[in-house]
Specification:
Chain A: It comes from Streptomyces subrutilus. The complex is a heterodimer. By secondary structure, chain A is α+β, with helices and mostly antiparallel strands. Helices cover about 30% and strands about 20% of the residues of chain A. Chain A has a domain of about 220 residues: Dipeptide-binding Protein, domain 3, CATH 3.10.105. Chain B contains 13 helices and no strands. The chains are: A alpha+beta, B mainly alpha.
């Protein structure tokens, strides 16, 4: 194997040298810059969507990037996390409980039928119904009457077909009544699960998932499974985010490395990510076409509070976890092992999110071996003086987990080992069946740009993202108070206070924020990446 | 002969059931739940999970699942649906197999033509310079791992010389498939060459060759008919099993060259715990292996009349 490895490096060096020369030649021919072909078609590297293209069932990025072109929702956000109106003219509420949505008139689906209040209400009722098995159905749980359509008990039948809280007022107006006040509910409406559906969808939802008809800037053209999906511009689109190109081909690649090779040889135009092998060279290869931008996601080490280690004989003192956190040299690890693709975190809420506060953790995320040791001793020490970090070995986590472990062991003499699971499935299985022995790697990408998404959905007792079994009645009460705040501003402020308070509980150890490391070809310009890390496909301009 | 074929065909039945059952059990014993895996980090409620599990029959005992699956294949030619995409597995196989079949066919042709040629030359010139050169060459190929070879081919021919595109496009033209086919077939090519060489060198000293030469037969006939026919038996055995190996073993090569074939399908299905897809692919591969080995056995009788089947 040693021979094999070195051969690979030699070959790699040749690639680097070649790419460097190729790049030098390409820069001169930029005379035609700025001339844009409005009907130009470009391609993006995207994997095969895992499921049918139904808006309420797609949660992984390969499917959601397609849906982001095909469907427009009521609202969207700008880069600072501010709400903007898309299909809605206004989304308003006086008490954060009863929301009134007014639609912009004149919008149509790609098949020519009108988008009206009914298109939304019926789609949401369909998606919330457990019989339709939509993976994102729980997003409708805020709406009054959700339990009737989606009973929690296994095997229970729904007792209704309509959400009690949804009422059509007229063609372009409907109201949403929530079970409890949610000040930031309007923000959730930007998520794809809240898309409208045309009447034709209900005749055969599976067929509609193969050939979706939406209301977005692009209409569906074709889907060659595991090869590519083609979208073309929808000329009658009424939204502000009209496509600036003629269409997009979403091409499937078996690995990110092959996609990168195709980018260099001009067979694909936009990448979503660069593989670890090419990270050290891509800035040199691509010049100003290399993308290096923060997006709203964070990686953490979550504590498995149900594990014996943290539970018996007495619950772990948060000081111990604070100590572990301070034993991690984030600056060095992000610079060396992660090659600058992450940025050290200083809080639990990621950047680009409403309510993001720099340095929310105070000094708990600063590297300080002496203080780390002192804190661990003060908190009664790590049981057995030993921890392990569970990760999935198919996701490129091994290197940094080892680095974090080394950092902890060097600073505090706590023994630390990586607990590798063969793949993400096995990792999830261990988390769900509560078999994590000590600590596991965890991550969170925003669903909506409000700090509540990074706190309530992760640390509330019984929340979907709370897989470590963290539970604190005091914190639950504070979260509940933040959720019932009268206005969005107050809610965000209350959550900021909760984030500051998390230091006293340490439900997880924030590690670093993610960055988009990607690139694009010379054929395109104006390639921007949204807060979820995906390229904004309608904004890309194709050069003549 | 007819009875032999019938017996062999009957033998295929237990082999078919045995292998598919084994694969089925193995895939299902992997940790990780295919339905829970659908929802990633964020998870979903248990009610939806239970509903999905029930729909795909994942809540039944494993033997019953196996029986449902196999009986659907046998009686309706229905391989079921993929859990994630809801696509018919027959469709999935139908789009993956033709590509791999073409790739395997090209690799197989390269392997036979080049492998046999090299083997014959080496066998006839045993101990001479040509033999030694071929020995070094084949040993080199055998010892280099496939992914290294693929990487070198790409680097040299795609990036340095610019003769080929680095990756196979979605049209999978024959021209594009040549490079991956060479990489895929090279290992077997070396084996074919070595096998042919040994077998030829050995038979050159056999009585029947000496007799043929003594009879004054032209050299072409001695080598082409008498020597070749007898020397091909071990080679054909190898080639027969290699058809199956080429079809299924292309995981690495297909990954390197971005070919959307069977190799990638198996890899992805295992990662995603798509048990039914894995079993479907393997079922087809088992059939390929069985037919290939039957053909090989029948070819024996043609090549060496001493091997007769009652």
């Amino acid at each position: 194997m040693r021979g094999a490895k070195s051969a690979k490096w030699v070959a790699g060096a040749i690639v680097v040298a070649l790419a460097a020369t190729a790049c030098g030649g390409g820069d001169k021919g930029d005379a035609a810059k700025g001339e844009v072909d409005p009907n130009g078609i470009y391609s993006i590297e995207v994997g095969e969507p895992e499921k049918l293209l139904q808006p309420a069932d797609t949660m992984e990025s390969n499917g959601s990037i397609v849906l982001s072109g095909l469907f427009s929702q009521l609202v969207d956000y700008d880069a600072d996390g501010k709400l903007t109106m898309v299909n809605a003219e206004s989304v308003e509420s006086k008490d954060s409980k009863l929301w009134t949505v007014k639609l912009k008139p004149g919008w149509t689906f790609h098949d020519g039928t009108t988008v009206n209040a009914q298109s939304y209400v019926k789609a949401w009722n369909w998606a919330a119904n457990i019989d339709n098995k939509q993976g994102n159905a729980s997003w409708f749980a805020d709406i009054k009457g959700f339990e009737a359509l989606h009973p929690a008990a296994e095997g229970a039948k729904p007792t209704g077909t309509e959400l009690e809280g949804l009422k059509v007022v007229d063609d372009n107006t409907f109201t949403i009544e929530l079970a409890n006040a949610v000040p930031y509910f309007a923000y959730k409406l930007g998520y794809e699960v809240f898309s409208p559906l045309p009447e034709s969808f209900y005749k055969d939802p599976a067929a509609a998932g193969e050939k979706p008809v939406g209301n977005g800037p692009y209409k569906f053209k074709s889907w060659e499974h595991k090869k590519q999906i083609e979208l073309t511009r929808f000329d009658d689109y009424k939204g502000e985010n009209k496509a600036k190109n003629g269409g997009v081909v979403l091409k499937n690649y078996s690995t990110v490395e092959t996609a990168y090779e195709d980018l260099k040889s001009g067979n694909v135009d936009v990448l979503r990510t660069i593989g670890p092998k090419d990270l050290p060279v891509y800035r040199n290869d691509l010049g100003d076409r290399a993308v290096d931008q923060a997006y709203s996601a964070i990686q953490t080490l979550a504590i498995a509070f149900y594990a014996d280690q943290w539970k018996t004989p007495k619950p772990v003192d948060p000081k111990v976890i604070q100590g572990l956190s301070m034993a991690i040299d984030r600056d060095t690890i992000t610079k060396t092992v992660l090659q600058g693709t992450r940025e050290p975190a200083t809080g639990w809420v990621a950047k680009g999110v409403l309510g993001y506060t720099p340095n929310a953790t105070g000094d708990v995320t600063k590297y300080d071996p002496a203080k780390a040791k002192a804190l661990i001793a003060e908190g009664g020490g790590v049981p057995n003086n030993e921890i392990s970090i569970q990760f999935n070995s198919d996701g490129g986590h091994k290197e940094w987990v080892e680095a974090v472990c080394n950092s902890i062991t060097q600073a505090t003499a706590v023994k630390c080992t990586g607990d590798a699971k063969p793949d993400f499935q096995a990792d999830l299985q261990a988390r769900k069946s509560k078999q994590v022995k000590s600590i596991y790697r965890s991550g969170w990408v925003l669903d909506y740009p409000v700090n509540a998404n990074f706190i309530s959905d992760l640390f509330r007792t019984g929340a979907g993202g709370n897989q470590g079994g963290f539970s604190s009645p005091e914190l639950d009460a504070k979260i509940a108070a933040a959720d019932t705040a009268a206005t969005l501003d107050e809610s965000v402020k209350a959550y900021q206070a909760v984030e500051k308070d998390l230091v006293n509980y340490m439900p997880s150890i924030p590690l670093w924020y993610y960055k988009v490391n990607a690139g694009y070809s010379e054929k395109v310009q104006n390639v921007k990446y949204a807060q979820d890390g995906d390229p904004i496909i309608e904004g890309v301009e194709v050069k003549k | 002969m007819g009875r032999y074929v019938a017996r062999r065909l009957l033998q295929m039945i237990p082999v078919f059931f045995g292998t598919t059952l084994l694969i089925f059990m193995m895939v299902y014993s992997l940790p990780g739940d295919p339905v829970a895996g659908l929802f990633g980090d964020k998870g979903t409620d248990p009610a939806t999970l239970a509903k999905l599990r029930h729909e795909y029959g994942l809540d039944l005992p494993i033997l019953q699942q196996y029986w449902n699956y196999i009986s659907n294949i046998l009686f309706h030619f229905d391989f079921g649906q993929q859990i994630r995409s809801g696509r018919e597995i027959t469709d999935v196989l139908g789009s993956a197999f033709p590509v791999t079949l073409r790739l395997a066919l090209l690799a197989f042709t390269i392997e036979i033509v080049l492998g046999l040629a090299l083997g014959i030359v080496a066998g006839l010139k045993a101990g001479k310079l040509a033999d030694n050169l071929i020995l070094v060459l084949t040993l080199l190929i055998i010892s280099v791992p496939v992914f290294v070879l693929g990487f070198i081919v790409k680097t040299v021919f795609a990036f340095q010389l610019g003769w080929i595109a680095p990756n196979v496009s979605n049209d999978e033209t024959w021209g594009e498939l040549i490079a991956p086919a060479i990489v895929l077939g090279s290992l077997s090519l070396a084996y074919v060459a070595r096998l042919t060489r040994t077998s030829m060198a050995e038979n050159l000293r056999a009585d029947y060759v000496r007799t043929a030469v003594a009879k004054g037969l032209p050299k072409r006939r001695v080598i082409g008919v008498h020597l070749m026919r007898n020397s091909m038996i071990p080679v054909v055995t190898f080639l027969g099993t290699d058809i199956g190996a080429l079809m299924g073993g292309a995981v690495v090569t297909e990954g390197i060259f971005n070919v959307k074939g069977v190799g990638g399908l198996i890899y992805e299905s295992i990662i995603r715990r798509e048990g039914l897809t894995v079993v479907g692919v393997v079922t087809v591969l088992v059939v390929v292996y069985l037919i290939a080995s039957l053909l090989v056995d029948l070819l024996y009788a043609v090549m060496d009349p001493r091997i007769r089947y009652a």
